[in-house]
């Protein structure tokens, strides 16, 4: 269908419009800005005040320019103003970013961060490289900055659903603080030393006060087992840097279920060393075994992956334990022949590397699995080597079940919820229990189900707005430092605790913003006990963001208690009694990021679905349940999503059912007496008879929801989170928090539109992603031989070399014999990037970081569905079927009827290879030659640049790009809010979003593109220019250092280069795996990127078409164990690609 | 059939075509003259809240540009001074001058009209949003303020002196030698290349007969400092 035709359909379909005046209260936000001006420019008295006021956002806004309307000289530009500070705060240089160290607390350990602020606005999250050399931040930390600017954030005090003044709550708090007996505090699962201290003081003052920790996906089984073996409040930190063999039992320990810092794992995965400075050595690579139900990103990295339902993990754990000599009672014999062999060889390999091996279990698994794993690790001697048990303070807190019991017994009458959890939505039984409470006080950033059900809601400050402290994943003490005063006057957790402890007035950041908050004083007091008193230690902590002192203490290792293992075995799921696995979602986690548009639009790493969740089943299960045909055909509705709910069975549909016509069949899942209607989707590599459902979605629907669901919860979400996904918490009970058995499904014969960015079943034939094995591979030879062959996979194996008939004068990289022409070739810098597929897990951190750095708009579900997502990085994910092997490890072939033996492939357990693809910065770029207005041209330093102001939107360039790396602004996504129903199609009448809070996140050094403009990755050109401009001061520095007039100084090209490895791009910074290297190839092999490009694994995408990309990829290396039954099939997923 | 059209009407199409052509030319010429930055911007001289006199401060009092525009060598933006910068001198000098009332309102707490609100200066020079001009990059490589802003040191009330159009930028990027000078002289708006060369024979820069001293100096510096201004789009647009 042509675009024109489709637009017409949209216009005529317009019916209902949604008013967002309340949520998008723009005038109110502006009023905040106005009111803060005078305060911002107030006098600064003391040095300490300076510390606070320099973070005062409103003051810094004074430096920005305000538009002052059209003057009489209307031929000229409108008059604009320059408003410098009345009194300059220290450090602020207009136009220069400032960086502050902070950390983002989380249940898995705080991420130590460096936050970029522009004129007082935090705009970008970077890893703290002082804390960890390899760094990386992960997806959630990258996206967290958007949460701060969420215009739907809660900004008012609410009493039983009615907005009240701050004073009313303060009165209530004062009253409450007099007697905190029978009052319960519920915190998040993160640890904070200051919180622990304040809690201790409250408990000392009011002996009847109670304290709990709760998050929906905290892994109670693991905690329980750790507590029994290592003592109260203990945790175990895994150290993969010493682990040569790793067995993961359904633990996504690289992404969603991190159990310690992950950089060690990736360092051990590097064939040429993490700095690419060693000879390729297959012996330095670790080996990862995993047994899991659904493909996790860790599973994608695994060398051997066993597909098994999560309920059966306990059998695998017991079998491994038995192999290693642990006496246990689970009938391991229930495993099949293949599984038995798998376990035997895996256990033997772990044993052979005892002390350098580790077994990790998913935190979601039962105590029985955890105890077995502890016993296994004790046999392997992992504790003290690859595992570090530590004591945290969380032993002082109760669990949710304790809280519910205490409410029941009447020991608790008031509950104060201060954590990120949303128990009314995500905890079974809490909503009912809450009715018995006198007061339910909720401190939160958004008006969610709990906020709306609570008797009091207090708007919370974001972590970028508050003082606090936490502990990192490796147990080190970190500080949480605010970048800005709370945008909407939110209250920080510590401020609330202090007010309740002392009965003092709640700190009001709007009126008292120039003063130090109580939270600051408390954190400082805590740190005095850790790092000592005095300004020197404190300022060092603020500068570094962490302290070497105050880390968790080591815990004593006790004996594993295997008593719970008895009776832990569960029957394997069948088609009649399916198993459900509840998962944390890579986009919304446990539901807390439902209002984060960046995360919602980031495609799910496995299914590539955006803005929704689905029930996922394996292809075989789909066949068994009779859903397969429907899933394959994906019958189109004939119209664009959300328009008219009419089925047109014969409308045309693409081969994959991609695009606007995609509509998933809807099923009803029944388990535990609860039922849920949810669309269903095929997930490859998933265990059979297993349904996997991500939690956290379906928090509220409005009248535009497609299935006509109840709009009761509409007030619990913003326009971002509304109508997204389905609430699987409804199926979850306290007894079956992660795995439920005995489920049934019913086909509802309904369809639900989904926006899926990619549903490729195979690699479309081209050897774009490449993989080799450390083992010998049939016809391809040894590891060394395979290394040599990386560049010659696919068409490159037989395509003749490209000889250009047109001898382009210029770059020596094109034609050696031509001397480089300075006009086209900059001798100072030539930029290049490599992406190492051997460490890339496909986690989306780079994609979100790119979005934050480059002002990439969100387009909404309808636009994603029709292929208009704007992400500059496309996270491709390939599934590749592996050849079948028999139990003895022999490859299975069959006769093709012509006397040839051909391989038999097993599609049920494919390999997964993620591959981020952005603009490849071709030296000989096809896009450049077709632009009629020269809007995309080559730069002297090897970039394929975009002059956005020149682009007229012909889209010829995108048409001519072999990598599909260009994105087009079909609408003014930045100006018109794409999340308002059909807003984009209203033209000038549509709702605008200019000047709203998310625009404060924009990077001022990158153009915001408008409608009709093509855009794409330009290697973060703003960062490159900044580095080059910084290098220009060399002349002044040299002249001053030598004490001679500048005219006598000469400067060489080499001196004008930014220092080696100093320039880092946004995606590279975000990558926890260190998969992306970037740099100046003119620096020679001092530069990491040059060494990576020299690797034998280095290859260019579609090399044979002669585009000479500057971004190259490094092939993935699988390290199979030759004794495993599937060893011969591993590591050659891409071998037959063309 | 009667002759509907009189004879003179035969010429009408040509007359119409001629008039249209003239009008089109006129519009084009008018646009070219009046709608370009040269006509639109040059000469813009708005009233400022405080009639700050650059000639007085720079030429008579000898204050360096960087005393007020303090971050110009560090940052892309040439900052306009904060009110407390002015106050450093003006708490002692001309304290009762009524022209300085906006300043006192911003910083002087003892002043009756004190508000603490920053002074709102009217912007004169502005690059479009899609242009990323960087002051530090130019000043640290020997381009003086005067090249783009004119003789600000002689302006009693600042006006927009140069067009600052893309053409203007490119002209210099193609021939930087016309503007390059030693770093020490960047903020000397009265710099004269011939005088400088005469005073610094040790540089060994010879001026050929008939050659411009600035060109000779500029060429020498360009060579020595490896000045390679770029003309590709991404230099300014990103």
TrEMBL record, chain A:
Protein name, UniProt field:
TAT-variant-translocated molybdopterin oxidoreductase
InterPro entries for this protein: 4Fe4S_Fe-S-bd, TAT_signal, TAT_var_transloc_signal_dom
Q: Where is the 4Fe-4S ferredoxin-type domain?
A: 831-861, 910-941, 942-971
Family matches, as Gene3D superfamilies: 3.30.70.20
Region: Disordered, residue numbers:
1-20
Q: Specify residue ranges for compositional bias: Basic and acidic residues.
A: 1-13
Automatic annotation (TrEMBL), chain B:
Q: Which UniProt keywords apply?
A: Membrane, Transmembrane, Transmembrane helix
User: What sections of the protein cross the membrane?
Assistant: 12-35
Does ATP-binding count among this protein's keywords?
A: no
Q: Which InterPro entries match?
A: Multihaem_cyt_sf
The protein's name is: Cytochrome c3 family protein
> Species name for this entry?
Persicirhabdus sediminis
């Amino acid at each position: 269908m042509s675009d024109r035709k489709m637009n017409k359909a949209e216009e005529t379909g317009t019916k209902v419009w949604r008013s967002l005046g309340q949520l998008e209260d723009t005038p109110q936000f502006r009023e905040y800005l106005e009111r803060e001006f005078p305060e911002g420019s107030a006098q600064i008295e003391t040095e300490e005040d300076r510390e606070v006021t320099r973070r005062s956002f409103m003051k810094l806004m004074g430096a920005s320019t305000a538009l002052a309307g059209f003057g009489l000289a209307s031929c000229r530009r409108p008059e604009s103003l320059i408003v410098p500070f009345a009194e300059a705060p220290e450090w602020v240089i207009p136009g220069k970013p400032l960086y502050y160290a902070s950390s983002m607390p989380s249940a898995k350990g705080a991420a130590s961060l460096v936050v970029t602020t522009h004129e007082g606005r935090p705009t970008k999250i970077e890893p703290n490289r002082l804390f960890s050399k390899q760094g990386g931040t992960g997806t959630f930390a990258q996206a967290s900055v958007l949460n701060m600017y969420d215009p739907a954030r809660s900004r008012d005090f609410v009493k039983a659903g009615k907005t009240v003044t701050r004073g009313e709550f303060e009165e209530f708090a004062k009253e409450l603080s007099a007697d905190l007996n029978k009052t319960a505090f519920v915190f998040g699962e993160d640890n904070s030393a200051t919180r622990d201290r304040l809690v201790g003081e409250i408990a000392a003052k009011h002996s009847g006060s109670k304290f709990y920790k709760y998050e929906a996906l905290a892994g109670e089984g693991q905690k329980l087992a750790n507590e029994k073996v290592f003592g109260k409040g203990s945790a175990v930190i895994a150290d993969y840097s010493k682990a040569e063999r790793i067995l993961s039992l359904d633990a996504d320990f690289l992404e969603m279920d991190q159990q310690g810092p992950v950089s060690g794992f990736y360092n051990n995965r590097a064939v040429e060393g993490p700095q690419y400075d060693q000879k390729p050595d297959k012996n330095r690579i670790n080996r990862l075994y995993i047994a899991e139900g659904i493909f996790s990103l860790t599973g994608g990295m695994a060398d051997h992956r066993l597909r098994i339902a999560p309920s059966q993990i306990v059998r695998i754990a017991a079998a491994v334990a038995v192999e290693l000599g642990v006496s246990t009672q689970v009938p391991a014999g229930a495993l099949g022949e293949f599984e038995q062999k798998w376990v035997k060889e895996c256990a033997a390999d772990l044993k052979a590397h005892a002390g350098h091996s580790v077994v990790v279990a998913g935190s979601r698994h039962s105590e029985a699995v955890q105890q077995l794993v502890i016993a296994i690790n004790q046999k392997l001697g992992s504790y003290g080597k690859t595992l570090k048990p530590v004591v945290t303070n969380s032993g002082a807190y109760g669990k949710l079940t304790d809280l519910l019991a205490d409410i029941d017994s009447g020991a608790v009458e008031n509950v104060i919820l201060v954590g990120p959890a949303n128990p009314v939505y995500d905890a079974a039984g809490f909503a009912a229990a809450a009715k018995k409470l006198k007061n339910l006080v909720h401190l939160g950033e958004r008006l969610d189900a709990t906020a709306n059900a609570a008797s009091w809601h207090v708007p919370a400050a974001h972590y970028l707005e508050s003082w606090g402290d936490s502990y990192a994943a490796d147990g080190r003490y970190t500080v949480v430092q605010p970048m800005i005063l709370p945008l909407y006057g939110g209250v920080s957790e510590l401020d609330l605790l202090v007010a309740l402890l002392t009965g003092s007035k709640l700190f009001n950041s709007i009126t008292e913003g120039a003063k130090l908050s109580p939270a600051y004083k408390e954190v400082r007091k805590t740190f005095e006990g850790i790092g000592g008193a005095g300004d020197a230690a404190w300022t060092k902590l603020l500068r570094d963001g962490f302290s070497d002192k105050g880390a968790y203490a080591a815990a004593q290792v006790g004996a594993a208690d295997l008593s719970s293992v008895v009776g832990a075995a569960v029957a394997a799921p069948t088609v009649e009694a399916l198993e459900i696995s509840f998962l944390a979602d890579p986009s919304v986690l446990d539901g807390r990021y439902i209002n984060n548009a960046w995360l919602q639009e980031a495609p799910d790493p496995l299914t590539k679905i955006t803005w929704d969740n689905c029930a996922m089943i394996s292809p075989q299960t789909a066949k068994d349940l009779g859903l397969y045909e429907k899933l394959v055909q994906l019958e189109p509705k004939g119209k664009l999503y959300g328009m008219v709910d009419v089925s047109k069975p014969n409308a045309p549909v693409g081969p994959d059912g991609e695009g606007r016509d995609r509509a998933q069949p809807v099923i009803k899942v029944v388990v535990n007496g609860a039922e849920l209607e949810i669309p269903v989707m095929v997930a490859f590599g998933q265990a059979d008879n297993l349904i996997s459902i991500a939690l956290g979605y379906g928090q509220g629907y409005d009248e535009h929801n497609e299935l006509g669901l109840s709009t009761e919860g509409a007030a619990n979400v913003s326009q971002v989170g509304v109508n997204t996904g389905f609430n699987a918490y409804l199926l979850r009970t306290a007894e079956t928090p992660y795995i439920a058995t005995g489920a049934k499904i019913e086909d509802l014969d309904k369809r639900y539109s989904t926006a899926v960015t990619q549903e490729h079943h195979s690699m479309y034939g081209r050897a774009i992603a490449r993989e080799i094995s450390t083992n010998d591979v049939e016809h391809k030879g040894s590891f060394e031989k395979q290394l040599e062959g990386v560049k010659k996979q696919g068409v490159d194996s037989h395509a003749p070399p490209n000889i250009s008939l047109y001898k382009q004068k210029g770059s020596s990289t094109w034609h050696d014999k031509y001397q480089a022409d300075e006009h086209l070739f900059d001798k100072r810098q030539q930029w290049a990037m490599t992406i190492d597929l051997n460490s890339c897990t496909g986690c989306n951190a780079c994609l979100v970081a790119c979005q934050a750095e480059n002002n990439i708009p969100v387009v909404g579900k309808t636009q994603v569905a029709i292929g208009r997502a704007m992400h500059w990085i496309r996270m491709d994910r390939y599934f590749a079927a592996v050849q079948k092997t028999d139990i003895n490890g022999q490859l299975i072939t069959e006769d093709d009827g012509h006397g040839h033996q051909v391989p038999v492939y097993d599609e049920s357990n494919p390999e997964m290879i993620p591959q981020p693809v952005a603009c490849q910065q071709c030296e000989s770029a096809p896009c450049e030659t077709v632009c009629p207005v020269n809007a995309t041209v080559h730069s002297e330093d090897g970039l394929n640049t975009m002059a956005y102001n020149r682009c007229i939107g012909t889209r010829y360039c995108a048409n001519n790009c072999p990598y599909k790396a260009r994105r087009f602004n079909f609408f003014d996504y930045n100006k018109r809010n794409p999340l308002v129903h059909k807003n984009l199609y209203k033209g000038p009448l549509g709702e605008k979003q200019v000047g709203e809070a998310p625009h404060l996140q924009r990077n001022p050094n990158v153009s915001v593109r408008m409608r009709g403009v093509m855009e794409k990755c330009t290697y973060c050109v703003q960062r490159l220019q900044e580095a080059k401009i910084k290098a220009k001061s060399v002349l002044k520095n040299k002249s001053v250092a030598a004490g001679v007039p500048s005219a006598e100084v000469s400067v060489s090209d080499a001196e004008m280069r930014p220092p080696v490895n100093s320039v880092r791009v946004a995606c590279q910074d975000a990558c926890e795996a260190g998969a992306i290297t970037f740099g100046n190839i003119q620096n020679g092999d001092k530069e990491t990127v040059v060494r990576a490009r020299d690797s034998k694994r280095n290859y260019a995408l579609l090399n044979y078409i002669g585009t000479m990309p500057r971004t190259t990829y490094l092939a993935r290396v699988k390290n199979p164990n030759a004794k495993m039954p599937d060893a011969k099939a591993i590591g050659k997923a891409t071998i037959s690609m063309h | 059939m009667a002759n509907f059209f009189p004879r003179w009407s035969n010429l009408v199409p040509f007359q119409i075509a001629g008039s249209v052509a003239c009008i089109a030319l006129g519009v084009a010429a008018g646009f070219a003259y009046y709608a370009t930055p040269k006509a639109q911007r040059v000469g813009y001289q708005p009233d400022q809240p405080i009639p700050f006199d650059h000639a007085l401060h720079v030429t008579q009092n000898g204050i360096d540009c960087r005393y007020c525009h303090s971050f110009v060598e560090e940052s892309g933006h040439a900052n306009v001074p904060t009110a407390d910068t002015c106050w450093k001198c003006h708490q002692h000098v001309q304290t009762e001058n009524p022209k300085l009332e906006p300043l006192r309102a911003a910083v002087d707490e003892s002043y009756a009209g004190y508000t603490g609100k920053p002074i709102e200066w009217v912007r004169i020079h502005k690059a479009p949003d899609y242009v990323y001009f960087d002051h530090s990059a130019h000043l640290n490589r020997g381009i003086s303020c005067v090249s783009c802003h004119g003789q600000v040191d002689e302006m009693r009330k600042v006006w927009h002196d140069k067009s600052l159009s893309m053409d203007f930028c490119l002209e210099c990027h193609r021939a930087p030698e016309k503007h390059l000078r030693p770093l020490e002289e960047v903020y000397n708006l009265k710099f004269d290349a011939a005088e400088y060369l005469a005073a610094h024979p040790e540089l060994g820069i010879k001026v050929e007969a008939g050659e411009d001293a600035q060109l000779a100096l500029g060429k020498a510096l360009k060579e020595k400092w490896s000045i390679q201004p770029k003309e590709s789009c991404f230099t300014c647009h990103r």
